[in-house]
Amino acid sequence: MAMYIRTNIFLLAFFAITVILFSSNMVVGRGCQGEQDLMSQCAAFVKKDGPKAYPHPTCCGAIQKADIPCICKQLTSEMEKKIDMNKVVYVAKMCNKPLAPGSKCGDFNVPPVAYIG
Question: Which of 28, 46, 86, 116 has the maximum number of C-beta atoms within 10 A of its C-beta?
């Protein structure tokens, strides 16, 4: 009987730990593919301060690997206060992964093609 109780407690603990780990992975899983690389490699090219600059190849590499539609959907107004969305559009275009004209990235409406550049 004691062995039966220990086995049940072990199984209960195992399932509890599994659920906790699975739950924490689900929270981490809300991030988008390439988001961290994009932030670390491209932040300098999209910040509000400073002139518009042609992006470095490492930034373009990060953009090519990133799930841009996912990142745009999760872009908060707090994040938008720190970046220049026109520079975001420019950098994406220069890296051959342009944002679709008329689409939204956060609260920003991507302008028509004629105005991007």
Answer: 46
Amino acid (one-letter) located at 73: K
Give residue 63's pLDDT: 96
Distance, in Å, from the CA atom of 35 to the CA atom of 92, rounded to the nearest integer, reads 14
Q: What angle (nearest 5°) sits at the alpha carbon of residue 93, between those of residues 48 and 81?
A: 20
C-alpha closest to that of 98 among 113, 108, 82? 113
Average pLDDT of span 14-30: 36
Q: Which residue, chain included where needed, has tokens 């950098």? A: 91
Helix pair angle (57-65, 85-94), 10° resolution: 90
- Going by C-beta distance under 8 Å and a sequence separation of 6 or more, which residues neighbour residue 107? 75, 77, 80
Q: Where does the chain show beta strands of DSSP type E?
A: 104-105, 108-109
Assess contact for 103 and 73: CB atoms under 8 A.
no
d(CA 13, CA 5): 12
pTM of full prediction above 0.85: no
